[in-house]
Amino acid sequence: MLQSLEPKVLEIITDETKSVDTRLGDICELLRNSVDHYDWVGFYFRNGDKEELKLGPYAGAPTDHTIIPFGKGICGQVAVSNQNFVVPDVAAQDNYIACSITVKAEIVVPLFVNGKNVGQIDIDSNTPDPFTEEDERFLEFINRHVAEIL
Ligand code: SME
What we know:
Shape: globular
Helix content: 25-40%
Distance between the termini: 27 Å
Number of domains: 1
Number of strands: 6
Order of helices and strands: HHEEEHEEEH
Number of helices: 4
CATH class: Alpha Beta
Bound molecules: methionine sulfoxide
CATH architecture: 2-Layer Sandwich
Structural class: alpha+beta
Mean pLDDT: 97
CATH superfamily: GAF domain
Largest sheet: 6 strands, antiparallel
């Protein structure tokens, strides 16, 4: 049950003894370690005024894709669509940036501050078609609360 992780997520977010980046990294680690179908978890944020995303805190294998132009890949598409993007099978996507050949599916949920799309949480899974509406609601919950500390 993803919902059972929500108190722990809130505990991390509200711990003002740690920097925001440390807290975001701790959320990534918590999610990656607690959810079987979460193999890479990271935050991307708009890079200043540029039309591009920059990788923030993450858990999982390092990625070469630290900068992603708006419109490119699943992440870049969410930066312009402002909508959740659930990809059950990454091989079926034309506009997709592969980070690892083991990845089968991906979910990206935008993060809004005062109604503005400032970034997103991105999760890769090595399991085919693992994401449901429960993941979407859970990740929306996380982003709503992360927005309060940005
Ligand atoms: N697959 C993403 C790129 C980021 S990696 O998954 C970490 C995309 O297509 O935008």
